[in-house]
Amino acid sequence: MDNRKKIHIKTPMGEVHVSMNDLDPNGWIDFPDLALRQYFLWIHPETGASIALIEFAQGSGIPVQHTHASNQFMYCIEGEYEYTDSKIVLRPGDFYMNPKDNPHGPTMAHKNSVLLELYDGPHYYEKPSYHTSDTMVVPTK
User: Fold this and answer.
1) What are the tens digits of pLDDT across the range 49-58?
2) Which of 6, 102, 110, 119 would suit a FRET pair with 12, their CA atoms being 20 to 30 Å apart?
3) Measured between alpha carbons, how far is 22 from 11 in angstroms, rounded to an integer?
4) Is the full-model pTM beyond 0.85?
């Protein structure tokens, strides 16, 4: 699969406006084993910084503790999403920041959840066990 087709906006220059009505239904990246899907709104081609929508079905989540190669930011649009190790629960309007290299997770969606996820650089140092080559759109560091 050509993962470049899974990025809605391919340029970091200038203003960007994306309406939910503009999202390409084929642009979603499915994680069938995890019951979640991700839609990249923007990825910086040089740094790996990104902005994505993530939808978690109720009962799904990230199954293991993990770290990131950059700072991670999450904003809950709808649902209820928990970082089970720290007992932090995100609800609509909540913001979460996880610093680079900080272990966190597993996670659990207690309700169907939609989150806006941002990274200020590459997501991972190496591919985590819950990713496949089809879901690793942002290169590792």
Assistant:
1) 999 999 999 9
2) 102
3) 17
4) yes
